[in-house]
């Protein structure tokens, strides 16, 4: 007799723990019902009818015998427990495999610290490139403006010069008394930066007076700078356009003097007297404010 046969199933009964609780009467009833169904006289055309009926009888004999049935129930219980253990082991095995795969992914994944460092280095390189580009752009821009401004300074006071490519409307002539610390090119840049970008500053000095040419970025910036009293009140700056007539008069007070020098005379012989008179008035105004 094959021990792999489930005798409860052969009789059409539930197996496992439920089958073990069946009574003898329920087993007898199931056998009689199944015997009528599988009897060879009722299945003349079935070549397996006799074998199936014999199998039914054998299963009934096992379940009918108390000792044999108990052994069979124990066998089914052991098989169920084996299946459960295998299921648990498979579950553990699947979890172990999953954990192993997760550890492998973590091991090969990019380290967040290294990734952040690489990102920082990449951005730093880009920033250095941009700074270098800006410095190069301004370095290429300044010499073009510096050379003409120096030529203008050397030729100033003469014919007014031309043909050097510099827009004189952007150039301011600045002068001051040589008292105290005076003014440096850097200081003048800081003062005139309020009105726009300063392309160049060229200092010219004598024993008594300091002067400079300031090249602004645009004519509008130069015009804006000529309308203000600049520098220290104790030693103010006189600011006039290099090219007469390109901007309004520097100080409105001078326009009210009918006999005063005009802006067209600021560059030439009349410039010195006008400069002295304006500086004197500015000093008096500064003293009154004190």
Note down, in words, how this protein is organized:
- The chain is of the alpha+beta class and 290 residues long.
- Helix content is 57%, strand content 11%.
- The protein has ten helices and five strands.
- It has helices spanning 7-10, 16-20, 24-38, 49-64, 66-108, 112-155, 185-192, 219-225, 252-255, 271-289; strands at 171-177, 198-205, 209-216, 230-232, 235-241.
- A five-stranded antiparallel beta sheet has the order 2-3-1-5-4, with helices on both faces.
- The longest helix is centred in the middle third of the chain and has 44 residues, at 112-155.
- The radius of gyration is 55 Å and the shape is rod-shaped.
- The termini are far apart.
- Mean pLDDT is 77; it is low at 149-164 and 246-270.
Summarize the structure.
This protein has 290 residues and is an alpha+beta fold. It has 10 helices and 5 strands.
Main attributes?
290 residues, alpha+beta, five-stranded antiparallel sheet, 57% helix, rod-shaped
Rounded to the nearest angstrom, the radius of gyration is: 55 Å
Count of DSSP H/I helices: 10
Largest sheet, in brief, is: 5 strands, antiparallel
User: What series of H and E elements makes up the topology?
Assistant: HHHHHHEHEEHEEHH
- Uncertain runs are 149-164, 246-270
Helix content: 55-70%
Which term fits the overall shape? Answer: rod-shaped
Q: Tally of extended strands?
A: 5
Sheet with the most strands: spatial strand order: 2-3-1-5-4
First-last Cα distance? 128 Å
Find the structural class using helix and strand composition.
Answer: alpha+beta
Beta-strand residue percentage: 5-15%
How confident overall, as mean pLDDT?
77
């Amino acid at each position: 007799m094959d021990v792999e046969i489930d005798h409860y199933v052969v009789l059409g009964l539930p197996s496992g723990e439920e089958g073990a609780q069946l009574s003898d009467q329920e087993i007898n009833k199931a056998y009689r019902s199944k015997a009528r169904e599988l009897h060879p006289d009722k299945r003349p055309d079935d070549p397996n009818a006799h074998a199936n009926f014999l199998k039914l009888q054998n299963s009934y004999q096992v379940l009918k015998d108390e000792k044999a049935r108990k052994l069979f129930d124990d066998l089914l219980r052991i098989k169920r427990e084996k299946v459960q253990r295998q299921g648990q082991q498979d579950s553990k095995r699947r979890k172990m495999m999953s954990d192993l795969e997760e550890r492998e992914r973590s091991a090969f994944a990019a380290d967040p610290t290294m990734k952040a460092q690489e990102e920082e280095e990449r951005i730093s390189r880009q920033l250095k490139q941009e700074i270098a580009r800006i410095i190069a752009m301004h370095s290429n821009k300044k010499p073009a403006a510096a050379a003409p401004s120096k030529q203008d300074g050397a030729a100033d006071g003469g014919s007014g010069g031309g043909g050097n490519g510099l827009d004189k409307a952007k150039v301011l002539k600045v002068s001051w008394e040589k008292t105290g610390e005076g003014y440096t090119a850097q200081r003048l840049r800081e003062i005139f930066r309020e009105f726009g970008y300063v392309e160049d500053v060229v200092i010219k000095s004598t024993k008594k007076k300091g002067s400079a040419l300031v090249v602004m970025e645009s004519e509008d910036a130069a015009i804006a700078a000529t309308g203000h009293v600049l520098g220290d009140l104790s030693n103010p700056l006189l600011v006039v356009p290099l090219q007469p007539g390109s901007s309004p008069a520097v100080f409105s007070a001078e326009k009210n003097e009918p006999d005063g020098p005009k802006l067209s005379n600021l560059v030439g012989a009349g410039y010195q007297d006008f400069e002295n008179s304006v500086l004197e008035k500015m000093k008096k105004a500064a003293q009154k404010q004190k």
